[in-house]
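Late entry, written up from scratch paper. The run itself happened at the end of the previous shift, but nothing got recorded in the book at the time, so transcribing now.
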Amino acid sequence: MKIAINGYQLPEHSITFSTFPGGEEYIRIPKSLPTDPKEIEVGALIKSSQDVMRLLMITDALKRYVGSRDCKFYLYLGYLPYARQDRVCAEGESFSLKVFTKLINDLKYDEVHLADCHSEVGVALLDNVHNDSQKLIISHNPTIHNLVNGIDYIIIPDAGAAKKATEVAEYYGKPTIQCLKQRREGKIVVEVLGDVKGKTCVILDDICDGGGTFLALANALAEQEPEELHLFVTHGIFSRGKRILLDHFNTVGASYDWTKD
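Output as recorded:
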C-alpha cells in the first residue's frame, strides 16, 4: 500500500500493518502528518482478500485524519480484482465483481484509477472511474514503447484482445496477426492467421495468470520460426512464475508485476 499526502510519499515502514491471531487486520497511520491535507493518493495492488480489508481500513483511518477539512481522495488500483468474474454464469453464484465494486464505491473516492481493465462491466460499475488504455500504458513505458517500435508484427492472442491490440497497432503503425484459440478435450489449440517466419513479434494482452494460453501461442508460433517472440501484458499475475514463459519468449514483461523472478 502506498500513500502520498500533498505529493509527499509516506515511507512504507511508517504505516503499521498487522494481523491478529483471530485473522483480523490492524492498521495505524503515523501521527505526524501534514496539518493541511489537500490531496491524498492511495495506491493499492490487491493480491488477496487481506489486501482488500487493509484498503478499507486504511481509507477509513485517512478519512478520520482529514475529518471535516476539504481534501480530495484518489485511489490507484491498476488491476481491478474480480474483473474476470463480471457475470453470473450459474445458479447459486455470486456476482463477485459487483460485490467488490460496491465496496470501492462505498469508500467515496473522488477518483478511482484503473489500468487496462479486463472488463468494461467493471468500469461501468465503478463511480468516478478513469481507465487507462493499453495504448497509453505502453506509450508511457519506455521499455515496451521501444520494443513495439522495433518489432515487425503485433500478435493478437484471441478475439477478446483484438480491440485493444489493434488500437496499439494503429498508434504505432504496425501490422497485426490474429490468432484463434479453442479448447479441445481440455487442451488449448491455437491457429495463427498469418506468417511470422523470420520476423520479430510481440504478443499483447491485458492479463497473464498461469500462462497456459501464451505457452500454446508460443508453441504454435514457433512452428513458423520467428526471429524473436516477446510477451507483454498489463497485469502479470504469473501464478506459475515467469521462468516457464521465458523458456519460450525472448522477453516477458508487465506493467503491474506480481512476481520477482
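The longest strand covers residues 176-184.
(Scratch paper discarded after transcription.)
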